[in-house]
Every structure is written in structure tokens, then in C-alpha cells.
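User: Continuing from earlier, I have the next pair ready.

Assistant: Great, send them over.

User: Here they are, in order.

Assistant: Folding the first of the pair now:
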Amino acid sequence: MRTRLVILAALAGAIFSVSPGAAQSPQSYPYCALDTSIGATSCYYSSREQCGSRCIENPSYRGPQGAMASTPARRRAAPRH
């Protein structure tokens, strides 16, 4: 019984200690590879060399500022009187 409680506590601690990672979206990368056989694009490339011969610029690329868009804004200090 005690080992079950220890295992359960360890699992609960592991679950709640995991923080979500920063998810990367296609808008985070400047280049897309075209797959003309199915008409799809894959926009997870940071250089033209990575995406190959059917490479285009990502039309929805946000640039380095876009990666920081979900960061909470700082609060301004209240003006002193």
C-alpha cells in the first residue's frame, strides 16, 4: 500500500512539473517547401538549403518579433505624484 502511494505521488509530481514548451508554428519559419504532387506546403525551414529545390519564401512569416508575441507584456509603474 505504501509503495503504491509513493509511486502515485511520484507520477503526480512528474505530471504537474512538466511545463508546456514553446510550440513552433509555420509562421515562425521564413521558408516553405512545395509538394506539387498533392498541392501542399511545409513551412518548417529556416534556410533555402533545408527545404530543397521547391523552396519559396513563407508568405505568412512573422519574423523574430512574431516568436515573442505570446510573451506577457510588462506593466508600467504607476506615475509618482
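And the other member of the pair:
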Amino acid sequence: MYTATMRYSFKPEVFEVACGFWRNLVLEEAKKAPGLVRMQFLVAKPTALAIGTWEDKSYAEAFMRTGVFKRLLEHLVGLTAAEPKSELWELDSFWQSGS
């Protein structure tokens, strides 16, 4: 599995609007993406953390090529306090209740 994260710092006064753009543009597109295992969006105003877990790195790369994040960034102009920060992760350990 392959996990990529994107950390967003939004301006507090537009936090809900910015989060709405992420949900409407990224999450809705991700639901249709091949190879997606899980997409999460964690919030702690004014910061948000998007976590995408994919079957393989190639699926994450294909999703990025759709231009979804370029479209998101166009909508976020003036709403961020800093540039979004991307991080890439490899699964080392995992536990889930019921598995």
C-alpha cells in the first residue's frame, strides 16, 4: 500500500469554505478513482490533513495526473495561510478492530 498526505493551512475566517472545496473537488473525484483504498480528511482549525491510501503508488500518480489538485489550488487562491505541504508514506504497521 501507498499513502500520500497533504497538509493545508487555511485562513481561519474561510476555513469552512476551503474545506468545502476540498470535499467537493477532491473527495468526490477520489471516490471514482481506481486503486483507492481510503481517503480521509482530518480537520483541526485552521489546519486540515488529507490522507489518501492507495493499493499502489501508480494509482496515486494516476489520480494526480487528472488535474484534481490543480483545480483545487485554483479554488483556494486567497484562502490559504501557507502553501499546501505534500508528504509520502509507506505502510509499516497496521491494526484495525475486527480485522
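Worth noting for the second one:
The domain at 2-82 is CATH 3.30.70.100 (Alpha-Beta Plaits). The chain has a mean pLDDT of 94.
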